[in-house]
Amino acid sequence: MVGAGSAGCVLANRLSADPGVRVCLIEAGGSDASPRVQTPAGTITLYKSRRFSWNFFSAPQPRLNGRQLHCPRGKALGGSSSMNSMIYIRGDASDYDRWAELGCDGWSWREVLPLFRKSEGNRLGQDLAYHGTRGELAVDRARDPNPLSHLFIKAAEAIGLKRNDDFNGGQLEGVGLYNLTQKDARRLSSYRAFVAPVRERPNLQVLTGCKVLSLLLEDGAAKGVLIERDGVEQRLECKREVILAAGAIGSPQVLLASGIGPRAELEAAGIEVHHDLPGVGKNLQDHLDGLVTVRSPSPLTLGFSWGSLPSVLLSPFKYLAQRKGWLTTNYVEAGGFARTPLAGALPDVQFHFVPGYRSHRGRLFEWGHGYAVHTCVLRPGSIGELRVKARGEIEIDYNFLADPQDARVLVEGIRLARRILAGAAFDGLRGQEMLPGTEVQSDEQLLAYIREHAATVFHPVGTCKMGVDAMSVVDPQLRVRGVKGLRVADASIMPTLVSGNTNAPCIMIGEKAAQMILQGGQAKAEAVEDAALAAV
Ligand SMILES: Cc1cc2nc3c(=O)[nH]c(=O)nc-3n(C[C@H](O)[C@H](O)[C@H](O)COP(=O)(O)OP(=O)(O)OC[C@H]3O[C@@H](n4cnc5c(N)ncnc54)[C@H](O)[C@@H]3O)c2cc1C
Fold first, then answer.
1. How far away, in angstroms, is 127 Cα from ligand 1 center?
2. Structural domains of the chain ordered from first start
3. Between the CA of residue 304 and those of 14, 44, 180, 299, 370, what are the distances in Å?
4. For residue 488, how far is its CA from the centre of ligand 1 (angstroms)?
């Protein structure tokens, strides 16, 4: 298995639970044993970390003033679940029903809900029709939410948005506190939930610091992988199958480097074509996001100032002694889903409220206080692609705003976010709006602002699309079309982007892949037994 991320870790757990299956989990990154990873508030120090992040940047985006957008992905045990903001959201039931309508049998909401429930260890007493309590993935609330997170909810209710105490309980729309993948105020990555507790299994081997360069292909079948460790290349062969779980950038990159992809592009990059599969790297989708950020005089908000110095200095002690205080925050404790005037029956934007100042200069830290709302386009129409370059390198082209409707939705979403922040709940806390800035009001001005400042909320998916059409890369059993012994199971297989954050859906994809592989193995064993009996 390639990649110990959100999907890879659950898959490694489920497969190795069968003593008859031997699993080798290969991860390019290293250990996750760092307070920056394990402490929720450490999350923002990871985005640009050279140790924990693949710091990808996109190709210049022509409709975003030629800017290259940052695309961090986790590079450590746990993958992106070791650097993400820990929000646990599944999306809308209709997301999965849409996959089924596109020909992905077995992936409708009714069929995937039991898999979400299986891995979940819900600690909030939420509706058992939707939630599991016995899974390894603890799901909790922020341990010590900032008072402003509650104010955001109050202000949103005041403009008519519904309160939602469970975004995963059958109704996405509304505002509330997010569920988080945390246990006792510590991050619970997919690695910590699913692999660390079973690492002693004799049939599970975990290799770190091993980058998979390409697949070993023989007679149209995957026989193993070529890895690089400490500058040395090595061949690892497998008996049964190779599973790529290297994420929406990593998995197509390995396929393309192995000569599996669009023929013309591979040839242009000087890569020998093993299998012409035109969909590899195509269908890239992500949530484009616009920020409203406001200064505040209040040291209640997260931020550095002389006023907040005592609480900042005390925070490590408060965390260690009580598991409370600043270090418990994931910075996006509250948010929700709303319909702009352009929406149909379903929400078209998601909010992430930050009870701290988000820099108007794109910095990680700024002196002083404030609060912010991120607003993203939930069901984007713009579709991008990954392109392979010489030496197998990848160019990420989101193609943002190719669909002009995305810009219109984002303009309306930012307006809605501003209306929330204008509410009485923030009176007394409100300072100057730094972005977009109060002078930015018309559609044209807001669009210009988006072009200059929009970013993503780090949810790339779809680059090894599951489906039954000519552009699909894997079939609904996640087998790579036209190559034997090879599957993909991670964010890349999503045919369409789900309406929400993507970690929980990736964990579900890992569960589903394991279920299909184990059932397939079972069916094969039974067929051999039947054949043997028939021969007697
Ligand atoms: C900063 C950030 C914040 C986010 N916040 C949230 C959030 O709050 N909630 C949420 O639901 N989602 C969030 N996401 C998104 C979510 O975490 C990801 O969509 C999800 O983790 C992806 O899972 P995956 O299994 O597809 O891949 P990953 O978890 O990215 O795993 C892929 C693994 O493969 C490894 N790998 C890649 N290439 C190779 C190779 N060639 N050889 C060996 N190993 C390789 C990587 O190092 C990585 O460990 C966030 C993402 C980021 C980056």
1. 28
2. 1-140+179-285+385-395+459-536 (3.50.50.60), 142-177+288-379+401-453 (3.30.410.40)
3. 44, 15, 25, 8, 10
4. 14
